[in-house]
Amino acid sequence: MVLPKLQKLLLRSLSCLILIIFSCGYTNITKGTEGVLDVSNLDLASHGVIDVTGTWAFFPNEFIDPLSSAPAMRFLSSDDIWEEDDSLSQYGYGSYRMEITLPETATRYSLEISPRYVAYDLYVNGERVAQNGTIGETAAASQIAYEHKIVHLSGLTSNRLTIVFHMSNFEFPETSLASGRSVGIELWHTEDIQTVSRVRLANNAVALGVYGALCIFCAGIAGLNRRKKDTLFFSGLCLVLFLDVFTLSENGFGVVARASWLFRLRFDQSLTLGIVLTALFYGRELFPHEYPKRVVRIFAIPSLLFIAANLVLPLRFALITFRNDHYIFFAYLVYALVAACVSLIRRRDNAKLLFVGIAAATGLTLAAEYVDLLGLPPESFFMRNRFLVAQYATYFFLASQALLLSRRSAKIETDLRDRSLSLQKASSQIADLNQRLHAENTRMEDELQTTRRLQEMLLPNQDELNVFDHISISAAMEPASEVGGDYYDVLTRNETSHTSSRQHVDNHHVTIGIGDITGHGLESGMLMLMTQMGIKTLLEAGISDIETVLTVLNRSLYANVLRMGAERSLTLGLLDYYYQPPAPSDLQHNANISGAGEGYLRFCGQHEALLVFRADGTVEEYDTIDLGFPVALEEDIGQWVNSLALTLHAGDGVVLYTDGITEAENDRHQMYGLARLIDCIQRAWHKSTEQIKWAVLADLEHFIGDKVIHDDVTLVILKQL
């Protein structure tokens, strides 16, 4: 894997950085008193750095002559702000002076001034050697800056230095030599400061290389595997660290380093919070239970608000946020350490690596920031190199996280390999099951096709419906699946002749049955076949009363449904029609009228509404709820079975249907409805029954459009001629 190679690169880089840190010398801490600093007795060959600190001669509201030796009325420590004395305002201008006595040995010296939120002119022995912003006695004339300065004092002719700061600040609410990100006015041997500058440059170059390589590499991994968000956020963290080093005013890299100090300052301060954001989402991806959404919001929202304030607020107000950015940063460090401890206690995977990395980085960073609380000697190694140590702690953290991601990736790959083997095994089993299911489906499909063919064979064909002399019958059934759940049949009565033992078909007497079985499919189809056979058998047996037919059929179907273990029932209506021809006297009296007889019908059973259409255009609608009970639901339904008797004349007729028609829906979820069915039949009633049937089916198809019908459609039309 590539991540272990990356770990080796980080360890080698850390080794180089440890060698770099030991190249830095020790500082000599001798404080000045009342504007005088005497270091003439120090051996600067072994202590090559002098901190110019202590109490300075202070001249408030005055830019003194740089060569003036006038005594000062006030003395102020470089760490104290002007308002330490209640008589001074925290804004304003003034002068600092420090007289330094150096050893007699002739050497070249350089001054290093850390960046600070002030405007100043620096004079050494009366000569202005450095400038930071623009000084002035008013806010309009003054403009602060934030620059790191290294001044080479090449023209010294004596071992006495008079350092004078003319300083003004009408923006930042704390004006002193110490105001700003760091404190430090140091006097170096020129050769030493040049060496240290090269070391710092090399350190920044190494940092840029490490951060940049990590960022590009992890971004590439995240690009190849978009599911690895932990690698993506780790890449973002490395990118922010890269930009943080790249934008330092003293590093000398790229275009950003040559941009305006204000842009660099705003950008650099915002990157501190960018580290919090990227590290926050990285931790959330690794251990979501230790980084819940509520905590993420608590840190993310203030960080984003502070970033916006850093970038867009006027400088005077942005400086206030600059001073508070680090509170969010250190609060997150503390929480990260607590979350690492919790993940360790809960025994999360790779929690040890996270804990070691965060503990080292957090501990060293906090120690570097609050080093004064440690009570270490000023000349100690840690005191002198505390900020470099904090940076190396960052390297250690990155190395630990690279190892963590490596192990995490290895575990994911192992899990994926195991899952792949499991999936292959499962896939083989699924393939075997699919073959068996395909065979079973083929068998069931054949059975369904056979059942459907049986249904179609048992339905009356049009030739059977055309044998009647005085009535016209048309019917249609369209199942919603392979096997329908609707039933209809048209049966003629077999009457026994008085002159012969043979039977003949009486086309004056017809029985029509229509039913709707719950559901559809094989079970419903079987129940439909049993219903058809049962009714036909009872009629062939000479049982002429349709109420009796319905009651007896119910007992038989109820027993069969129990035996099948199927929860099925049906609504069933039986219509018994008999045509009574006219008497001979009527035919003689109405010689010009053909077929002036009457039709008599009885209807029993609970089904959809019975629709009677009269020749004069009127429609009669009869509710069948009180004429029966669902079949095969109770063992005995005789007490609920009743019948309805009607008379038909020439041009009158009856329409039977199932709810597959009236409850059919279009794409707007509107149902076809009974009113539309009646209206469609009324408009076509003057036509033949076959034409009426096709008019209804065409109107239904037009209404539903592309919508699929989910219920069987059955329609039977009887019209007396």
What does this structure look like?
This protein has 721 residues and is an alpha+beta fold. The chain is 46% helix and 20% strand. It contains 17 helices and 22 strands. The protein has helices at 2-21, 190-224, 229-246, 254-257, 261-286, 293-312, 315-345, 351-369, 381-384, 386-458, 462-465, 522-540, 546-564, 584-589, 659-662, 674-684, 689-704, and strands at residues 27-28, 36-38, 49-51, 55-60, 74-77, 92-101, 109-113, 119-124, 127-132, 149-153, 160-169, 185-189, 471-478, 486-496, 503-517, 570-580, 598-604, 610-613, 619-622, 643-648, 653-657, 713-720. The strands form 4 sheets. Strands 2, 4, 5, 6, 8, 9 and 11 form a 7-stranded mixed beta sheet that branches. It has a 5-stranded mixed beta sheet with strand order 1-3-12-7-10. A hairpin with a 6-residue loop joins strand 14 and strand 15 (503-517). Helix 3 packs antiparallel against helix 5.
